[in-house]
Amino acid sequence: MLVIVCYDVSTETAAGRRRLRRVAKVCESTGQRVQKSVFECRVELSGFEELERKLLAEIEPTQDCLRLYRVPDVRGAEVREHGHFKAVDFDGPLVL
């Protein structure tokens, strides 16, 4: 399944800036950044649960916001891109 991870981490303190870096590292280890605080991750259900657990361990719920959108693999679903960034096609051929 495709998971969209969006977060808003308070960076008013040094601790908040550290949390922001840790949240980004967790996301980078699982998916690809498509905007500054938005990642696309292709995972199975167990991977989704692990990703959620890792992210919840990093955020401060009273100051930060974390949203995870599960996009089911349905025929006909599409993502329209506009602008400079071009995402990696996970379903396309892998060229090294």
From TrEMBL:
Superkingdom of this protein's organism: Bacteria
UniProt keyword terms in alphabetical order: Antiviral defense, Endonuclease, Hydrolase, Magnesium, Metal-binding, Nuclease
Quaternary assembly: Homodimer, forms a heterotetramer with a Cas1 homodimer.
The keyword Magnesium is annotated on this UniProt entry: yes
Protein residues bound to Mg(2+): 8
Function: CRISPR (clustered regularly interspaced short palindromic repeat), is an adaptive immune system that provides protection against mobile genetic elements (viruses, transposable elements and conjugative plasmids). CRISPR clusters contain sequences complementary to antecedent mobile elements and target invading nucleic acids. CRISPR clusters are transcribed and processed into CRISPR RNA (crRNA). Functions as a ssRNA-specific endoribonuclease. Involved in the integration of spacer DNA into the CRISPR cassette.
Record Gene3D superfamilies: 3.30.70.240
Class in the EC hierarchy, top level: hydrolase
HAMAP family the UniProt entry points to: Cas2
Family matches, as PANTHER family: CRISPR-ASSOCIATED ENDORIBONUCLEASE CAS2, CRISPR-ASSOCIATED ENDORIBONUCLEASE CAS2 3
The protein's name in its UniProt record: CRISPR-associated endoribonuclease Cas2
InterPro entries: CRISPR_associated_Cas2 (IPR021127), Virulence_VapD/CRISPR_Cas2 (IPR019199)
Pfam families assigned to the protein according to its UniProt record, in alphabetical order: CRISPR_Cas2
EC number: 3.1.-.-
Cofactors that this protein relies on: Mg(2+)
Sequence similarity: Belongs to the CRISPR-associated endoribonuclease Cas2 protein family.
